[in-house]
Write a structure and sequence with these properties.
With 349 residues, the chain is of the alpha/beta class. It is 33% helix and 19% strand. Bound molecules: guanosine-5'-monophosphate (5GP).
Length: 349
Amino acid sequence: MLSNLKGLTFDDVILVPGYNGIKSRQNVTTTVELLGRTFGIPLVSSNMDTITELEMANAMTDLGGMAVLHRFLTIEDNVKMFEKLKNKDKVSVSIGIGQDGLERAEALIAVGASMICVDVAHGHSKEVNRSVKALREKHGSNILIIAGNVATYAGADYLASAGADVIKVGIGSGSVCSTRIKTGFGVPQLSALQDCRKVDRMIISDGGTRFPSDAVKALAAGADFVMLGGMLAGTDETPGSVIESEVNGSKIRFKRFRGMASKEAQDDFMGGMSDWKTAEGVSMDVVYKGPMKKVILDIMGGIRSGLTYCGALTIKDLQRKAQFMEITQAGRVEGTPHGMDRLDEPSSK
Ligand code: 5GP
């Protein structure tokens, strides 16, 4: 059966400018209130082993954002890492499903973790529901539960009714993800957000953010936070060292970035790839980018400016006022820098 739904993603749309009564983009606020916690910026570093460990978590929370530690380390090391954090109440830990997940959660809650992210590739599943329910029943409102990933209202609603406070949205949109190519499943990120936002919970857009404008569009489509993997890859604060190599005679510095379902990650953490499954992620080298602050300031500059193009003082205002227009490929090309860098410009003759 062919559904008549049309799936759109960031590049398919543009935000239509609206009247602006705000004097300066410095006057807008990007603060997000999440059940008693205040975040100065709506950005989250992804729980990938090449993105968020101690250094990234400290840097991200120092800038006002949220960080989610990855879970691909022993429970003991996970606890040690958590204990060293500067801003514990702004960092979530991650768990998978089943007994290991719950044991990890208990060990981390025992040392003060209060945000738990129950995170699997296909979150609209009975096992995630069980884990969320078990945590909620045991800890009540003492913990904040993030759960995902889903890409439909049905999935978001399922996790919300299990007891999740925040829903993580994104199936197949990540920069090092190959789920859609391998399985044919997923929902283009903008449509996924527009569907999931109907649930009465906060949502995190996870995957597919390549430019500051994607973050603005994700927020306008209903996300409360935007999780970043690829945009932070290659920065100083990511785990792993900078590798220098020669490409076509020039020295290039880069860092490793990989999908958690890539062959390389599965070899490291799951004892190799079993014959019955295929990798749903890829591994790559990304150009070294320097401090993550540069990337974050660029995104935040885009968000602040974006708010004023909409005449919105807050992200909630943006969500209320935003008007998306579907665009053509020609419109998209027009909207990317297309430098008129001819040396023989008529004016210079
Ligand atoms: P990015 O910001 O790089 O576009 O997306 C980051 C997100 O991609 C992560 O937060 C996670 O949800 C998703 N992701 C990470 N590794 C994999 C993988 O190996 N396979 C899939 N399908 N998604 C992944």
